[in-house]
Amino acid sequence: MTLEPPAQFPTPNNLPQQVAFHRTELAIILSLYGRMVAAGEWRDYGISHLKDVAVFSVFRRSAENPIYRIEKRPKLRQKQGLYAIIGMDGQILKRGHDLKTVLRILDKKLIRSVT
Prior knowledge:
The protein is of the alpha+beta class and 115 residues long. The protein has one domain (23-107). The chain has helices at residues 23-38, 99-107; strands at 44-49, 54-59, 68-72, 83-87, 92-96. Pfam families: DUF2794.
C-alpha cells in the first residue's frame, strides 16, 4: 500500500490569473447593450475572460464576426487606458480610463435624425 500526499489547495501564488469584468462594469456595458438591442442594432453578445484581457463582443447576428469588442486590459492602466473599443476591422475606435466615457462613442451611433 502506498500513501500519496494530500492534494494541495490552490494558493494565491498558483491560482490561474484571469482578467474579468467587475459587476459594476458589466452593468454599464449591459445597459448600453439593452438600449442597442431595443433599437434593433445588436442581437447577440459573448464574454471572454482570458489571461491578459477580458472581452465583451457584440454581434449583429449570431453567426458572424463581432462588430465591436469592448476590451479591458489591466496592463495598459498606466499608459493608454484600461478600456478600449475595437471595431470589426481591428481598428481601435476609443481608448481610455473611464468605461462610461469610452462607451459614449457607441451611444452616438444610437442617435439618429428622425424626419
